Amino acid sequence: MFIRDAYEKWGLDYVLLGGDSDVLPPRYVINTFYPTNGSTSIPCDLYFACLDGNWNADGDAFFAEPVTATTTGDLADFAEEVYVGRATVSSLSAATTFVNKVMTYENTAAGAGWTNRALFAAEVLFPEDFHIQNYIILDGAKFADEQVVNHIIPCTDMQYTRMYETDLLYPRDAPLTRSALVDTLNNGRYGIVNQIGHGYYFNMSVGDVNFMTTDADNLTNSGHSFVLYALNCASAAFDNSCLLERFVQNPNGGAICSLGSVRAAFPNNANSYQQEFFSELYCTTENRVGRLLALSRLPFIGLTANNYVDRWTFENYTLIGDPTVADLDRVAADRERGRTLVIGHRRPERGVHRDRGRSAGRRRPRLSAENRARIWRGG
Ligand SMILES: [Ca+2]
Ligand SMILES: [Ca+2]
Ligand SMILES: [Ca+2]
Questions:
Q1: Could you tell me the distance, in angstroms and rounded to a whole number, from the CA of residue 25 to the centre of ligand 3?
Q2: pTM higher than 0.90, yes or no?
Q3: In this structure, is residue 271 part of a structural domain?
Q4: Which of 111, 254, 362, 374 is deepest in the core (most CB within 10 A)?
Q5: How far is the CA of 141 from the centre of ligand 2 (A)?
Q6: Does 377 reside within a domain?
Q7: Ligand nearest to the CA of 73
């Protein structure tokens, strides 16, 4: 296939898939981890990034089948050779909007200050119908607090705003509600936005109610597009007109790119990847989103051979947007900065599996009752 040829002949590093699912159909993979005794068909752009192995070695109708007691499965490769993102555009005008937005971002945001600001929008995950008098099983603010304490404070001089549903367990700067979040996204100017909560294809829950696709369409933070990382279920389901692509498609604001899960997410597991992503972003010189996504997976790659939650998270987390987009207050330190929309930007190293000396599989899989629970609401 073209990407494999380009990687071998040109040393390709970054690939922007040019089209939404109607233009460039996704490769669906089958995953039997969830639901129990069932399976899920997952649109998996990781397929375009991992060029070794054979995603359908047994030649049947199903891709990326794991080895089971009764089948040999496929030989899917989960170690990226290239870093992939998708431009979810279906028309020339949408493509023009996409490119113009990236160009504006890369030309104006570097050193602008606001890109050095992070916004958290975290709600209580369990119980799902949390009310202030309830006990808390799992607060999304826990995952935000972990970032602040472990990465932002020790590694950066970044400003951060913590919008949480409750301050019962973790200190917050403001209560999280839909109207407050809309106002903050429009007027607050943030480089990084991290939502932690429930979600589904067309919504993400932000404390009191859902933030919908129309809310993403109507954002007006033009010239201050943010990198959006969402820990929720399915709002990156790009085989629909999903919430995370609507943030990116908005010509008047929204996100420059978004990262999230295309189907269900398992919060404790997904948080491990999220922490890796932000640790790499805040505590190293790495700043390109495509590579950050790959690096966030790397410590867990040894766990993907099993038909377990890490395999699920690898297949589900995806990038909507240009994989070379960089968090721009870190651009000055990026001496390898290339051109916009790079395809074939040669760097000395190619695969993430060669880049770092960390051993794979340093964390063991765990299956808590909470981890088995979906975190979507309204779907
Ligand atoms: Ca197969
Ligand atoms: Ca590989
Ligand atoms: Ca779509």
A1: 10
A2: no
A3: yes
A4: 254
A5: 35
A6: no
A7: 1
